[in-house]
Design goal:
Layout lengths: L4 E4 L3 H12 L4 E5 L2 H10 L2 E5 L2 E5 L3 E3 L6 E6 L3 H11 L3 E9 L6 H8 L4 E7 L2 E6 L2 E6 L3 E4 L10 H6 L4 E3 L3 H21 L11 H17 L3 H4 L2 H11 L6 H7 L10 H10 L5 H16 L6
Parallel strand pairs: 1-2, 1-6, 2-5, 3-10, 6-7, 7-8, 11-12
Antiparallel strand pairs: 3-4, 8-11, 9-10
The structure holds NADP nicotinamide-adenine-dinucleotide phosphate.
Length: about 300
Amino acid sequence: MSSTWHILGAGSLGSLWACRLARAGKAVRLILRDAQRLQAYQQVGGLTLHEQDTANHYAIPAETAEGDGPIHRLLVACKAYDAAPAIARLAPRLADGAELVLLQNGLGSQDEVADQVPHARCIFASSTEGAFREDDWQVRFAGHGFNWLGDPLTPALPEWFDDLHDAGIPAEWTVDILTRLWRKLALNCAINPLTVLHECRNGGLLEHLGEVTALCDELAELLRRCGQPQAAEDLDEEVQRVILATAANYSSMYQDVRAGRRTEVHYLLGHACRAADRHGLQLPQLERLHRRLVDNLQARGLPSA
Ligand code: NAP
């Protein structure tokens, strides 16, 4: 089985992973959106990773989904709403038993991907690392964090896991990946939409703690109903800790909305509301929040799903 890391999406996280793997001498190939993006990339000749005051260039080979050869190992590093369509295009190249690492935030996109490729193993990831694109093919490593990876269906550690340590990518294998993804989703639901609606930094929510607590109560109820009691524990306390610790920051959803970019709401608050519906749970605060957010996005001409 080939040990090449194919990386779909040379955006913020995809580039961060690609550069670190390439630096460690691992075989890496980028899969870009289309021929036009490939041509633009080839003119520049590689990715540049900015870390503090240093910038390093990595001449990583790239192709489109229509390139040749089977894919055995694929890091899926696009946004949640792009993941399933991108994998549908790539499916003919995925070898039997191929392993996919899904970096998408939220929940729902992982199952959409898995449905496209029943012959592949889907490994879910939850990342607290931070990166952003300074320009096309230029990524800045902005926040050190951690990566948890796990497979809800099979607990066995993938044979390539040491590649991550070799590349200096902080990562741990966990059997509780769904609990981690649900917890992160709940934190996101309690903070990000409110920062958009109140047009504030995370710290601005200190003036709306009643609203935050009411949401946390409903989110905790939802998590327990979804079989995730651990993800529900002390949710309100952690949300308040996060608000304080990140008081000066703008949430990722706020930044996306401000920049006129599509958000991942469908896989965050949208996923929570659909899960509540499936369980016949009435969660009025959460539903109202979702309605207000959808209206707000639509008024700005942004997709609300
Ligand atoms: P991003 O910077 O927008 O990058 C996404 C990349 O995917 C773009 O380069 C885009 O191509 C590419 N893409 C989309 N469809 C494609 C396709 N069909 N084929 C090939 N490439 C395709 O996004 P990101 O910030 O890295 O986020 C990726 C995921 O990680 C999201 O779910 C996000 O929530 C999560 N995450 C991000 C961070 C972070 O700090 N950035 C942290 C934690 C989690 P173009 O360049 O052509 O548009």
